[in-house]
Write a structure and sequence with these properties.
This protein has about 140 residues and is of the alpha/beta class. Helices cover about 35% and strands about 25% of the residues. Helix 1 links the parallel strand 1 and strand 2. The longest helix has 19 residues. The chain is elongated and about 50 Å long. The two termini are about 20 Å apart.
Length: about 140
């Protein structure tokens, strides 16, 4: 159920993009142990990105948004953030300001996630997996 979106400038090659998406998926799988991780890479022309109200004045600072189950462990979050920053840094070095990657971790309680015609809080296997994750 982890979902991620990465907003970056255009310019990385297809192999770099594939590797980036694979590495972030693996980092999320390692952290959450949940199936069905989904990821989107959104690339923008530099002229379509504003940073502090300015367009094109400096390299684009990437943003990665995570939509994930609740996670109590700060150490696990730190490790995940480091892996994501590293993957983005490798894929977009020289294209974006990879020293300034912003990662937004949005946690969702199971009662706020619908999946397969019900809430995840109604699925004992999901409830048990999150309990084990945060145990």
């Amino acid at each position: 159920m982890p979902v991620f979106t990465i907003d970056v400038p255009q310019g990385a090659g297809p192999d770099a993009k594939r590797k980036l998406l694979k590495e972030i998926t693996e980092a999320l799988d390692e952290t959450y142990h949940f199936p069905d991780t989904r990821g989107w890479l959104r690339e923008y022309p530099v002229e379509n990105v504003s940073q502090d109200g300015r367009v094109g004045d400096e390299p684009v600072r990437p943003v990665c948004s995570l939509e994930v189950p609740e996670l109590a462990s700060l150490d696990a979050k730190r490790k995940l953030v480091q892996k994501i920053e590293s993957a983005i840094g490798e894929a977009y070095s020289g294209i974006a300001d990879t020293d300034e990657v912003l990662i937004l971790v949005n946690h969702y309680p199971l009662e706020n996630v619908g999946w397969k015609s019900s809430l995840q809080s109604d699925k004992p296997e999901i409830v048990a997996a999150v309990a084990q994750l945060n145990g």
